[in-house]
């Protein structure tokens, strides 16, 4: 009898009681609340991860995974580039020359940066430029501009765009900024207007001429890597003291720290839904204990142990909570599939590469949600189970 009393009583107490329908209703509300909480948490965490990944992709494209820059003048040169290409054949390298400029068209001015690049190397590290230029060739003093700048200045292909360089040259008794007209040969679209307005690309020889730099000297080297956090450590071991290297994430530490804080805050707030549902488990079990006091006292008098009674009500809470968690997982996964498959929430294509919601539920988040919900269920079931095991047999039977 003792080996079967616990599961038997759990099944019995889970049945609908015509005399006490509110007990069953309270348990049902707890089940639905936990299901809803788990479902919302799964979808919310997948959305947060999806948007985080989209932001990272955008920032990685225009900021480059890794960048080598000089600590002092003339440190990044062709010799360093060839040495790195030989030692790291799995990575893609693109040397560049950079200058701050003012772009002028008519009476309009816009500040930004002009990058001199080798387009054959640059397309290997920058997918946006690869898509923009395709098989197009760039001659000296041709320029590739962003979509936002093109629209703001109302420029067409082969139009002339004036650049005012911060690099100055002496002229008589004063110094004057260098000014040069470039021919617009193409337009790129990164999806981020700040980059599309500020970044401009020309041939590396064009900018070296404007800045009076030798052909073997660069402002830096862009590097494409699938695993930049690992490769940056390896590269540092082979770089001279005259240069430094940094990853794209180092310029955006505060931004992604804020995203992580927002994600953690959202997780805690939504976990409160499960906590509120767990209160219904407590109330449901306490009502069951109060309603079944005579039965509990009789079971104890017939030889059932307090530990067995505690197990009965602990298992009751676990069954209600676990079934709610499983139902929430099923609903959450179904919701993620629907949102990722159908264009229910439309996203602007000029910002995101897809019109459907970006969703990415990590294993870590999934396990955190399931584990957190289960812990809340166990804690919620413990107090009613303890009260059930402490029923006073003599007092209850005397009153009965």
UniProtKB/TrEMBL annotation:
It is a multi-pass membrane protein. It comes from the Bacteria. GO terms for biological process: lipoprotein localization to outer membrane. It is found in: Cell membrane. Its main location: membrane. Residues 28-211 form the MacB-like periplasmic core domain. The keyword Transmembrane helix applies. One of its GO terms (cellular component) is plasma membrane protein complex. It holds the Pfam family FtsX. Residues 268-389 form the ABC3 transporter permease C-terminal domain. The chain crosses the membrane at residues 21-48, 266-291, 312-339, 366-385. InterPro entries: ABC3_permease_C, Lipoprotein-release_system, MacB_PCD. Keywords: Cell membrane, Membrane, Transmembrane, Transmembrane helix. Belongs to the ABC-4 integral membrane protein family. LolC/E subfamily. This is ABC3 transporter permease protein domain-containing protein.
